[in-house]
Design brief:
It is a single chain. The chain has 334 residues and is mainly α. It is built from eleven helices and five strands, in the order H-H-H-H-E-E-H-H-H-E-E-E-H-H-H-H. It folds into three domains: 97 residues; 51 residues, no CATH class; 144 residues. Strands 3-5-4 form a three-stranded mixed beta sheet. Strands 1-2 form a two-stranded antiparallel sheet. The longest helix is centred in the middle third of the chain and has 29 residues. The chain is elongated.
């Protein structure tokens, strides 16, 4: 029993060690691992485990199941210590009575039951249930603090990882070179010189605004989130492709470029963007077949948009040979 308790006590630390090894492998291991496993997934799992451990530290200890046999107090009362087999269990209404039994006749047994019932009415006693000794308060507190410490450490690792691998990890000269490249691509689509900026401050785009990009219709300036800029940078400067992220980044850049060109309707803009994204992706380093595949995936996912993003859904006119087809002479769409 004690060995089992020791194994249970060690389990949280074993899981934490495994998680730490995985996080290190994710940060410093091959790019394939980082491109396959989203950065938030291991930390979300870790947070769930730590919350489980923290909550478990304050759960009351489980009690043992009561022994259904005659208790020591029953044996002592009737003078049958150590001879539980000579006591007969009789259920009387909602009560259980242990009656001495040594071959008595029915009438004698009924008299014994009546006597036991009378004693039960005179004496109210509760069954003794053995309960595990509660853990020392400092033990629970230490488990709680250990869980909080691991969560804080994981949050710090996440912050360091973002600083090391994200857009902010690039030096100013590299970011300027990258945004100049993005601006050149957007200018091709817009048909005029335009500027693309990466909104490091989060004032214009990001989780708060629920947008990956923003542009004034007919204007000359658009903002992208740092994550989308980082995806475009990986493609254009590192030849790294993360299918879903790369496809989304291309679609966002092309989408904002069409807004700068003067197209206002979101569905129409998205349709044009997915078509322009093919050539844009090819110029940034993708093969034509890969670029088309990524944009087709974006077109498929577009049909799943709902809620606030429903306005971005393309219309039935967005198809091969349709009114929104930018290249009707080609049988390939987008």
């Amino acid at each position: 029993m004690y060995e089992q308790r020791d194994r249970v006590a060690r389990l949280p630390w074993v899981l934490r060690a495994v998680l730490a090894v995985f996080v290190l492998a994710w940060l410093f291991g091959p790019y394939t691992l980082r491109s396959t496993v989203p950065v938030w997934l291991p930390f979300l799992i870790a947070l769930g485990l730590e919350l489980h451990f923290v909550i478990g530290a304050f759960r009351p200890a489980r009690g043992r199941r009561p022994d259904p046999g005659p208790q020591a107090v029953d044996r002592e009362r009737y003078g049958y210590e150590g001879e539980g087999d000579d006591l007969l269990l009789v259920r009387d209404g909602g009560e259980e009575l242990w009656i001495p039994h040594a071959g008595e006749t029915d009438s004698e047994l009924e008299a014994a039951i009546a006597a036991a019932r009378e004693r039960a009415e005179q004496e109210a006693y509760a069954a003794v249930v053995a309960v595990e000794a509660p853990a020392h308060p400092w033990s629970r507190l230490s488990r709680f603090l250990a869980g909080l410490g691991v969560i804080a450490a994981l949050a710090l690792i996440l912050w360091v990882a973002e600083r090391r691998t994200g857009w902010d990890a690039l030096d100013a000269a590299t970011r300027a070179e990258a945004t100049a490249r993005f601006s050149a691509e957007a200018s091709r689509v817009a048909g005029k010189p335009v500027t693309i900026r990466c909104d490091e401050s989060g004032d214009y785009v990001g989780p708060v605004q629920h947008a990956d990009g923003v542009a004034t219709v007919g204007g000359e300036l658009a903002y992208l989130t740092p994550d989308r800029c980082q995806d475009l940078y990986r493609l254009a400067f590192k030849d790294e492709v993360r299918p879903s992220q790369t496809a989304r980044a291309l679609a966002v850049l092309a989408h904002e470029a069409w807004h700068l060109r003067g197209v206002r309707d979101e569905g129409t803009t998205e349709c044009y963007a997915l078509q322009s994204g093919v050539e844009m992706g090819r110029r940034l380093g993708l093969s034509e077949s890969t670029a088309r595949q990524l944009m087709r995936q974006q077109l498929t996912e577009n049909a799943l948009r709902a809620g606030a993003s429903r306005e971005y859904r393309v219309s039935p006119d967005c198809g091969d040979g349709g009114p929104l087809d930018l290249n009707r002479g080609s049988a390939r769409f987008p």
